């Protein structure tokens, strides 16, 4: 715990939504110079509590005491003015504005009615440098990689000189080097007396940087631990209410015939001469640092981007894939790394998200048959154990893990035989991860081929039967025997380049 005095106390907080009790009599506190971590499965109540703190939601009952004063009427702008800032798990930015314009959104520098763009760019560059990022502030946000967008969000939150900073999954989309930069920033903030509330599903980093860990389950506070007195197993048991013996469920499937092969695939300036294959009943892992070209190759395989040369073969026959429809026709499905930005239509219901890409397949007339759509949605909700009050519940209100299951369900309704999963468990808890891993096992047992891109090395090693390694747009290595797959071996290929 930080040595400073108490900054915040949230007392007996309750919050309910239709059909869901999100928080039930939760109390929580934070001190100056402390990193207090919040952990729990998706939907446990962590983010809801933080949205109440930052003024997005109003609690049904309970008090918020900030620097000894009970806060009554609150909204996001008021809480920001009081020194409470948040780095959201889901990125919130204006894509067609520059980095600087996003950083200054709502607080632009104006002198005598004139916008001072130059001064904003200079300050933006300084804020970016403070978090160890070298980006031109004049670049449009839409041109950045997800990891770069995340670092801009971090820089923005820190730029407010807040007394409390909430960091909700800040490292879910950034590189190892950027994580180290962030941890240095956190150490500096602690030294200045800033209180940090840190939400993450990454156990190792939680124990590394936090002073205390509070665990939530089903809207209730389960326990609070001193970080130097607790281990990962204790935290997992507190989170899920049981011991997880096999994080990566075992499977014994003999790979069959080749289902997908790419030969010499090239997109000029992005990746070059990439070749690999995946067989029926097999999980192929794709390793590499952020920016290695892994996602870019798969976007071409799925018809999202055009490649300049090379061939794609599906079940031994050359497939001309230029659009996502071509990929779906060839039985290729994609689980995108950005489930909220690309994988889901957030205002729509669980049902409509599940069936959206299959309407022409299941509904042969212009008039949708609602009963059939309901049956399909209910089937996927049951088979995937999607936790939702009902099929018509807005998908935006589901937890991250359940949103990911909806994306999986949509691809399953596509009847895809080759599944490409880009960061399939990003930002979801350990319990939901195990369920996703089991679904992957079920896919390959049913004769499908799965390609997994992941930045989490234990996940990649635990899931994959074989691994290919990419670096700076080139395929630099292959590991063809599962028993040979180790982190050291993977990094050896990368570091030799």
Can you characterise this structure?
It is a single chain. With 497 residues, the chain is α/β, with parallel strands linked by helices. The protein is 34% helix and 26% strand. It has 18 helices and 22 strands. A six-stranded mixed beta sheet has the order 6-9-10-3-11-12, sandwiched between helices. Helix 16 links the parallel strand 19 and strand 20. The longest helix is centred in the middle third of the chain and has 16 residues. The protein is globular, with a radius of gyration of 23 Å. The chain starts with 5 loop residues before the first strand and ends with a helix.
State the gist of this model.
The protein contains 18 helices and 22 strands.
First CA to last CA: what distance?
A: 43 Å
Structural class: alpha/beta
Query: Strand sequence of the main sheet, in spatial order?
Result: 6-9-10-3-11-12
The pLDDT mean sits at 87
Q: State the total count of DSSP E strands.
A: 22
| Beta-strand residue percentage | 25-35%
Report on the biggest sheet: 6 strands, mixed
Taken from the alpha-carbon principal axes, the silhouette is globular
Poorly predicted ranges (pLDDT <50, ≥5 residues)?
A: none
State the helicity in percent bands.
25-40%
Number of helical regions: 18
Task: Using the CA coordinates, give the radius of gyration.
Answer: 23 Å
């Amino acid at each position: 715990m930080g040595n400073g005095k108490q900054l915040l106390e949230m007392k007996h907080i309750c919050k309910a939504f239709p059909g869901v009790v999100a928080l039930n009599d939760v109390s929580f506190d934070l001190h100056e110079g402390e990193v207090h971590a919040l952990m729990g499965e998706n939907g446990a109540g962590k983010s809801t509590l933080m949205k109440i703190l930052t003024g997005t939601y109003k609690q049904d009952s309970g008090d918020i005491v900030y620097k000894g004063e009970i806060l009554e009427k609150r909204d996001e702008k008021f809480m920001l003015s009081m020194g409470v800032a948040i780095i959201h798990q889901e990125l919130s930015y204006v894509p067609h504005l520059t980095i600087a314009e996003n950083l200054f959104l709502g607080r632009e520098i104006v002198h005598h009615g004139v916008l001072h763009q130059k001064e904003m760019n200079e300050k933006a560059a300084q804020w970016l440098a403070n978090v160890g990022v070298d980006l031109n502030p004049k670049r449009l946000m839409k041109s950045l990689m997800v990891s770069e967008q995340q670092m801009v969000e971090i820089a923005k939150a820190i730029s407010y000189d807040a007394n409390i900073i909430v960091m909700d999954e800040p490292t879910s989309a950034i590189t190892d080097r950027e994580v180290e930069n962030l941890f240095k920033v956190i150490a500096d903030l602690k030294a200045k007396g800033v209180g940090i509330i840190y939400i993450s599903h990454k156990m190792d980093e939680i124990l590394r940087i936090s002073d205390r860990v509070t665990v939530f389950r089903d809207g209730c506070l389960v326990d609070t631990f001193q970080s130097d007195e607790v281990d990962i197993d204790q935290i997992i048991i507190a989170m899920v209410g049981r011991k997880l013996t096999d994080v990566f469920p075992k499977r014994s499937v003999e790979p069959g015939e080749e289902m997908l092969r790419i030969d010499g695939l090239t997109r000029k300036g992005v990746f070059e001469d990439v070749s690999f294959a995946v067989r029926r009943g097999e999980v192929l892992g794709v390793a590499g640092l952020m920016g290695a070209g892994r996602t870019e190759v798969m976007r071409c395989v799925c018809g999202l981007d055009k490649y300049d040369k090379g061939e794609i073969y599906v079940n031994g026959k050359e497939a001309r894939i230029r659009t996502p429809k071509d990929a779906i026709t060839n039985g290729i499905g994609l689980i995108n790394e950005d489930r909220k930005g690309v994988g889901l239509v957030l205002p729509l219901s669980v049902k409509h998200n599940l069936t959206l890409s299959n309407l022409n397949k299941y509904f042969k007339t212009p008039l949708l048959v609602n009963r059939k759509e309901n049956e399909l949605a209910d089937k996927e909700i049951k088979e995937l154990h999607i936790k939702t009050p009902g099929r018509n519940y807005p998908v935006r209100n589901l937890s991250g893990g359940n949103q990911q299951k909806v994306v999986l369900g949509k691809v399953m309704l596509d009847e895809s035989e080759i599944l490409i999963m880009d960061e399939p468990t990003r930002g979801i808890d350990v319990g939901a991860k195990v369920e996703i891993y089991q679904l992957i096992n079920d896919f390959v047992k049913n004769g499908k081929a799965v390609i997994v891109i992941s930045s989490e090395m234990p996940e990649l090693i635990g899931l994959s039967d074989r691994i290919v390694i990419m670096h700076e747009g080139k395929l630099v290595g292959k590991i063809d025997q599962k028993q040979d797959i180790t982190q050291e071996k993977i990094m050896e290929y990368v570091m030799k380049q």
